[in-house]
Design goal:
11 helices, three-stranded antiparallel beta sheet, about 5% strand, about 280 residues, mainly alpha
Length: about 280
């Protein structure tokens, strides 16, 4: 037990997250622990491995692997969380400022917004491919719905549409949201609309992005969403190549581009924050 107490503590917490239906958080923890295990060369990690020297070497290892600062910060915060749980349980010694020398912040300097010319081409120039047009319509709806995240768009249910207003709760924060559906969005919505009837106990999705054949708290539903997100991001890259864009494009690029566009058009920062569903400016 002493030889792998950190690993046991981490796996127990990941199991708790899954039982609570927090599959996304469990997924991040799993990747962080797997990365640290690969660095340590073993699946059985003791709390004694969580020391300043090891953490510094692990940080350098992640940098050498060309991970972005925010990814490195996430992995370090996952390790810190498990370490703190070990301290609270009496399984690990308390070491003041143990994570002080490694990066656990948020790098806000990473630019994610597209230049306006490339944004216009991404959303409106014909890619001359049916599957890329489908991807383009999803991206355009995300932009027109005030930078709606792909998760929120994919999980919209038919009941969310009330006349010309979408009312839903954000997947990430459960923040209640209301978005007006403009005339320019209606034709795209009709083309992407889900025409299938829902199954008992399963969500009745507005769009045909997810199948809707799994119950909301089923882990298989989360895995299906992750697969849909990867597919959408891969299709976005193909769309960007087809339109000869030079900037990298992901699902989050669209959200950030909407916020940046709104800012430069003079929309108050408070309104942008509220439209994005952020809890604070």
């Amino acid at each position: 037990m002493e030889k792998n107490r950190f690993t046991i503590c981490a796996n127990n917490y990941i199991d708790c997250l899954r039982q609570e239906g927090r599959y996304s958080t469990a997924h991040v923890y799993k990747h962080a622990i797997r990365s640290f295990s690969q660095f340590c060369g073993t699946q059985s990690i003791t709390f004694s491995k969580i020391n300043r020297e090891t953490l510094k070497r692990y940080s350098n290892y992640l940098l050498a692997s060309r991970l972005k600062p925010n990814t490195i910060s996430t992995y370090m915060r996952m390790l810190r969380s498990i370490y703190n749980r070990g301290v609270e349980a009496g399984s690990a010694p308390y070491i003041p400022r143990l994570f002080h020398d490694v990066y656990t912040g948020v790098d806000v300097r990473q630019k994610k917004a597209l230049p306006v010319g490339e944004l216009r081409r991404l959303l409106y120039e014909d890619p001359k491919s049916d599957y890329l047009r489908n991807t383009q319509m999803i991206a355009a709806l995300m932009f027109q719905f005030c930078g709606m995240s792909f998760a929120d768009l994919a999980h919209l249910e038919k009941s969310a549409l009330d006349c010309n207003v979408l009312r839903y709760n954000r997947i990430k924060t459960r923040t209640p949201m209301s978005v007006e559906v403009l005339d320019t969005a209606k034709e795209m919505m009709n083309q992407l609309r889900n025409s299938q009837s829902s199954r008992p106990g399963c969500p009745d999705y507005l769009f045909s992005i997810l199948s809707g054949d799994k119950k909301r708290k089923d882990e298989r539903a989360y895995r299906e969403y992750q697969s849909a997100l990867r597919r959408f991001n891969n299709h976005l890259k193909s769309l960007a190549r087809a339109l000869h864009l030079t900037s990298p494009v992901t699902s989050y690029t669209i959200r950030h581009s909407w916020a940046t566009t709104a800012k430069f058009r003079g929309v108050p920062i408070e309104m942008i924050s509220e439209s994005l569903g952020h809890k604070s400016i």
